[in-house]
Amino acid sequence: MRELSTRMIEAVLDGEGLQGVAELAAAEAGGPVAIVLPPRGLAARAPDGGELNGLAEYAKARVAQTEATAPDPITLERSIEAGGQIVGVVLLLEGQGADGEEQPVLVDREEVLRAAALAALAEVAVADAREDAERKMRGGLIEELRSHEVNTAEATSKAARLGCDLARGAIALVAEIESASPSHASALVAAEYEGSLAELADGRLYAILPARGGDDAPETTLRSAGRIANRLRKHGMVAVSSFYPDPGELHRAIREAELVLDVITREPEIAEALEEGIAASGVYRLLFRALISDPEEVRSFYRDTVEPLVRYDDQYRSDLLGTLEEYLASDCNMNATARAIFAHRHTVAYRLDRVKELTGLDPQISEDRERLGLGIKAYRILAPALPR
Description:
alpha+beta, single chain
């Protein structure tokens, strides 16, 4: 029997898992064997695999220590226990052996099932160790990407070992987890987005979503990321980066997603603009990406456009910026703008003249309107970091 235990443990260590243990137990005991650990989602039946045919429900009831009715006649049963708790069962079922004939009982079947139960616990330990190693590697890669640049080859290689193919690029996702079950958010990403990497850190969920689709990978991946983001919103605010084709730039993708999250937390209308199908989303994406790669360029653009309006409003408690923003949103219709801000049409005209004087840009000229509109968006993103 010691030799049988050794062979079962070797089967576990060789990667045969519970199926290998069940096959050895069935051959030794002379009848079908099922091993089920409901809390871990692990199960096997031998010989030759096969359906559990309701045995999983029976095992769940046994673990919960509630009344249970077996779907198949059971010759012998052994509980799998860990820490004084039942975590599964090993079942010897009535039936024929692997060669199709009734097998004579030449061994202590109780001992066979006991050895199988111990080997099942070894499989749990191996699975835990594997998951822990993967979690550390996954967390290590994401932490590296959060803290510094990782070159393309290194990022691709490390991700590949975790089943994540970054060869064609990826999108970063960051979520502020406010629910009581942060692990559920991480599990949701792993279950819904094949090949993704997700890890919790500092109260946030960080995920890398590899490219999907063909030549349309940027658009397809962004749509897929949007669907995941929608599912995650029950756990808290969620932001995604733009698509980065080079894995060596994923540190920027994470920084971009962090920046987007910080901005949409205080500016909900930007979150709406970033939704799929909103025309302004592309402009915001460009600004977020530019702010990550060249922040001074974005700040310079803000200074050259609407900064004088922001300062004037702060100094005189006026609303030139708000009036301009509403004017652009109303397709440059002064009457519609006046109704929206509850002011007279002449007040709108006066404020737009002040905008022209302060910025040197005329809201009634198409090219200047585009610069002013972009300047407003830059301001919304930069606002928290601006001096007051």
